[in-house]
Amino acid sequence: MIALSVNGKTVSVEEGPTELLLDVLRNRLGLMGARFGCGAGECGACAVLVDGEDKCSCSLEIGSLAGKMVVTVEGLGTAERPHPIQAALIEKQAGQCGYCLTGIVIGAKALLDRNPRPSRREVALALDGHLCRCGAHQRIIDAVLLAAERIRKTSP
Amino acid sequence: MIPPTLAANPSLGRWARFGSEGSVTILFGKVEYGQGNMTALAQIGAEELGVNWSRIRIEEPSTSGAPDEGLTVGSMSIEISGAAVRAACAEIRSLFLAHAASKLSAPPQELSISDGQILREGRSTGLSYWTLASEVDLARAPAEEVKLKDPATYTIVGESLPRKDLPPKLFGRAFIHDFLPEGVVHARVLRQPGHRATFKSLDESAVRKAAGESIEIFREGEFIAFLSSSEAAVQRAHAKAAEAAVWDDVASLPADAARAEHLRGLPNQVFETGAPPAEPSNRRRVTACYSKPYISHGSLGPSCGVAEWKNAKLTVWTHAQGVFPLRATLANGLGLSPDAIEVRHLQGPGNYGHNGSDDAAFDAAFLALRHEGKPVRVQWRREDEFAHAPVGAAMVIELTAELDASGRIADYTTELWSGPHTNRGRAIAESALPERPRGDAAPAGPGPGVGFFRFSGAVLNATPPYAIEATRVKEHLIQRPPLRTSSLRGLGGPPNEFAGECFIDELAESAGSDPLAYRLSMLEQPRARHVLERAAELGRWAERGPSGTGKGVGLAFCIHRNHGAFVSVVAQVEVAREVRVEKVWCVADAGLIINPDGAKNQLEGGIIMATSWALKEEVKVGKTGIASVNWDSYPILRFSEVPDIEIELVHAPEQRAMGLGEISSGPTLAAIGNAVAHALGQRIRDLPFTRDRIAAALLR
Q1: Which residues of A touch B162 (CB under 8 A)?
Q2: How many domains does the structure of chain A reveal?
Q3: pTM of this prediction?
Q4: What is the CATH number of the domain that holds B114?
């Protein structure tokens, strides 16, 4: 049995230690925000925060996560109370199909937590592990910069 | 005239429905996969009905609920579906007004509609769409003529309203992949290594051991699948099976199968259109050959399908591009009556054409028929999406022009080699079924339902949009290319625009003209000239420096399918060992714009996808099939590599609305091609512009 924190709640996982975090999130906990994209840590669609870092949940075995703090997109905001990054993405209509977006919200959150005042270039580099096939990149960068500005204003 | 898809679904009630809560649902058969078309179509409906936006609902098309509008392809949602929604909603509005007039014994001209409420000389009548809904029968055929709202009075169409489908995608459950009906059985299908491969053996104990939990190993013919209530278990089984299965007659591909040039040696059918063959002349003749490789759709989410067979009815959930065409494929391939099948659309990743979504739905349906009463969910692996979904066709395009004494183009020939760009109607699983068609008929290919006229995606924009006396196209259609090809955003349009618009630059150079001035000298339409001149202005064409400095600026122009939107692109690049596209300007005239921000989003997406095609993308082939099966071997453009983009939409609300989802990619390819040629002082005519090709060009 492995215990970890998911979105602030302690979760005990009975499945074996080689079970993948993405499977546990989606199929056991019903958290669908992390998406299956490649299963190889190459696209970022399944990203979650692990102790504040942007990680691909498809490539993390549960056994390596004992005592870790996992946050999924569901833990950041809801439609009623969106996180500023989610609100900015909607405001900028920064997406097309949207399959990559939850992972990008996670990537942006990890960035802004460590660098509240990123340049355009820094946002782009921080999101390089996240693929977007529709080509909404520039809007996404605009939205992350907008969110950064708003977060700075509300948390001095 | 009645718009074609309204005529094909001739009941007004199939296009709009009034809810009891004071809401209206606008119905259409086109599906949303990120283009924003659901929102734009609903805007058109809301506008004609005269109902505030907050009352408007949209729903996912299904074969039981939506009008049949075929496939969502070819930038045609706004043009085709929009025209139908507009006419249907306008007529619904006039029927309600006529009914209210008779009920109130009021002259019709005194009545109007505001937010669904019927007013008489501006005052409330107590009547509305909702109070009258039960009295007005919408199950009636549309009229030949209908009075449409004057575009000058539009308040909803032309507004950048936010997309209705986007917010759920930011928070959690939103896609077909997240749809797990009660009692769902997860399945993975082991794909046949080539359509002629036959199953020999499978080390079942190794597969079961890898699964770690109880699974069902299903086999019928060459169709092998693993099923379980645990998705993780079938995933592990599937991964193991790739090495635990032995096949005979595995596909065997020639070493150069991935190269576009390989196409020239393959059997083909020739179709010729245009002017008769050119007579020998003394004019100056210029020839150049361009190519484009096979390209993956690269949908970010591997395909998924869910199906249930219950009480002799098959329900299939899909993210394919059309629910009715998929139903026809399923009915034909599974031997069911279409009436026994309901297909429901759910949100999925961008398709950009015929990706694996139809195939995954077929897989799920086939397995559901053998697991009665249980919903079966098939999820494709990333590797299978790359290796087994159709790919965009490779093309070789040879262009020949004759210039008169003044340097003007007098004669123009396009000769091209291409696999099919439309190849629907048969699922990949069909070659694995026990009753499969054998021999050469086996590869997935066009099934029934293909129309009587010949549509070839390969020749789109193969003729330049300029005033040229004689043009002709000779098409070599390779029915059976080494890879399974089908539609990818724009079909043959973008490759032809790439070739044609790069070649125009070569001709301008040969004629000693500036590429912008050369194009303008052959363009008469004011709308065409405007987008070209305006893009050149934005991109500071006049300040373009000498060639061969490593920095380049290129431009391109296109009329979508030679009869649609006008678009011009300027690209600025820097070339060292690799190409970096720094900035792209795009000016588009697509007539009336329904949702300007949505339109810009589509143009931006096309520019970035085409930049990715131009710099990086080509399917790689190994001995048995596609070898580029992950993002490492099939890289696409990343955040730090995307160009800055500036877009200007021409305001032309008096012109008919034209599609624009695929219009920016061709001119982007060509503008980059011309910019790279300018930067290097040498032209690269084969996509993509890789390091090796840059190095080779510099050694010329």
Answers
A1: 90, 93
A2: 2
A3: 0.96
A4: 3.30.365.10
